[in-house]
Amino acid sequence: MLSFDLTDEQRLLEQSIREWAGREVAPRIRELDRAHTFDRGILPQMASLGLLGVSVPTEYGGAGMDYICLGLASEELEYVDTSLRVILSVHVGLNSLTLLAWGTEDQKQRYLVPQAQGTKIATYGLTEPSAGSDARGIQTVAIKRGDRYEVTGEKMWISLADVADNFLVFAWSDLQKKQQRDPSGMSAFIVERSFLVFYDTAPTEKWGILAGNTGHFKMDAVEVPAENLVGREGEGFKIAMFALDQGRYTVAAGATGLIRACRDASVNYARQRKTFGVEIGSHQLVKELLAQMESDYQASRLLWQRAGWLKNEGRRNTRETGLAKWFSTVASERAAGDAVQIHGANGYSDEYPVGRFYRNCKGAVIYEGTREIHKIMQADYLLGYRTDRPTRCELPAWETR
Ligand SMILES: Cc1cc2nc3c(=O)[nH]c(=O)nc-3n(C[C@H](O)[C@H](O)[C@H](O)COP(=O)(O)OP(=O)(O)OC[C@H]3O[C@@H](n4cnc5c(N)ncnc54)[C@H](O)[C@@H]3O)c2cc1C
Questions:
Q1: Per-residue confidence at 401, pLDDT binned at 50, 70, 90?
Q2: pLDDT tens for residues 51-88?
Q3: Which H, E and C letters describe 281-325, residue by residue?
């Protein structure tokens, strides 16, 4: 049976985040953004709402909510600011849900439980100076020495890099396969901040998501215990892609929230601002922009909810999640540009939020698969050049776990 009604739990979560973010973050977000400041105090508040373990089962310290709740949380957080949703994307989507599916019981106890409870913060380290879209181009290597790996390499553009306790790091563990660019030579590791012997704390200079934290770090023969290998040796690339299925889902739902924020701010402004003796909302060309925002919002919401439904069912959703991420992020760029346009010169000032939305939306068109990579993926599915083969570990269905 198909239902578009939210359950009581889903509605309650949506309402609690809306109230919390509206009360605690919205009044301060412009100042945080202007000051390029990530407020760490937000993390314990998110933890107390259960958000840092939102779709992690209660047996692992999480809130045990379904994957639709993860989407709703992403949408509500990004309605206020993208930096809030990014926390959920890396901590829950890319890292914790990956440990839930691929981690050993010991890793779940040592890392997933404190992450779900919010006492430890986690992120995801794939990107390097020489490789973003081309993940096989990473240069980081992990050399096995007895019961440890020595990891050497550099990661950049890492969200929460200056805040995270645990990093899910990808490296080549087979140097011959590295030369052949054979992804079965890549492995995934949990690297604790305390393992990092060299750490460069200068945050990345960005022009968007200014209330968020993005950084980089170098690893010079960092010792990682063998028990911190996630999955088996050689499964790192699959794990990196699996993680993106969860991260992209939060990005899709978040971009949907940003479209809604653009729509609401624009409707509000269009009812107040007058030109030629009438509200600008009366002009047909302004109506066109608002109508486009509404259709983009509704379509984006349906797309991420379909992906969330597939996750709840325990069904593969790489294709559907990718489509949702691609569509909604591109639509959010359109909505933010049009929201600035509707606000005229005021949209170009910091006094109104739409300029911040405009700066924030662009990142999501780049990270977790650029617009171009997603276009290619969708075309390849159509052409039969791409099919999703089963992986050894899958995200557990919500009902059955
Ligand atoms: C705010 C922010 C936060 C981020 N957080 C993280 C994080 O937490 N962890 C992490 O690992 N990474 C993170 N990233 C990095 C992000 O995932 C990469 O930037 C992204 O994968 C793109 O890689 P790139 O920047 O190297 O661009 P490139 O891969 O160099 O691409 C450059 C351009 O070429 C195009 N292009 C590349 N290949 C093709 C092709 N085959 N066909 C057509 N066009 C192509 C791209 O679409 C793009 O337009 C973050 C980035 C940003 C901006």
A1: very low
A2: 999 999 999 999 999 999 999 999 999 999 999 999 99
A3: HHCHHHHHHHHHHHHHHHHHHHHHHHHHHHHHHCCCCHHHHHHHH
Taking the whole predicted model, whether its pTM rises above 0.85 is answered as yes
Pocket test of ligand 1: the residue of 86, 204, 205, 366 to mutate, having most ligand atoms within 8 Å of its CB, is 366
Position 198 scores a pLDDT of 63
399 three-class SS: coil
CB 80 within 8 A of CB 18: no
Q: Is the pLDDT of residue 325 over 80?
A: yes
Q: Is the CB of 204 under 6 A from ligand 1?
A: no
Q: Is 368 a catalytic site residue?
A: yes
Helix or strand (DSSP H, E) at 272: helix 236-272
Can you tell me the distance from the alpha carbon of 389 to that of 54, in angstroms, rounded to the nearest whole number? 28
How many separate helices (H) and strands (E) can be counted in the chain? 15, 9
159 touches ligand 1 (CB under 6 Å): yes
The conformation of residue 258, written as its DSSP 8-state character, comes to H
Q: Is residue 351 lining ligand 1, measured as CB closer than 6 Å?
A: no
Counting from 1 in the atom list of ligand 1, the atom nearest the Cα of 90 is: 8
Q: Is 157 in the pocket of ligand 1 (CB under 6 A)?
A: yes
Q: Whose CA is nearest to atom 41 of ligand 1?
A: 373
Q: Is 132 in the pocket of ligand 1 (CB under 6 A)?
A: yes
Q: Is the distance from CB of 169 to CB of 155 less than 8 angstroms? A: yes
- Give the position, in ligand 1's atom list, of the atom nearest the Cα of 371: 47
Band the pLDDT of 345: cuts 50, 70, 90: very high
Name the strand (E) or helix (H) holding 192: strand 186-192
What is the distance in A from the centroid of ligand 1 to the CA of 391?
24
Query: Which ligand 1 atom is the nearest neighbour of the CA of 135?
Result: 21
Q: Please answer whether residues 314 and 394 qualify as being in contact, where contact means their C-beta atoms are separated by less than 8 angstroms.
A: yes
* Cβ within 8 Å of residue 257, ≥6 positions away: 74, 75, 76, 77, 78, 79, 85
Dist CA 108 CA 393 (whole Å): 14
What is the distance in A from the centroid of ligand 1 to the CA of 367?
Answer: 5
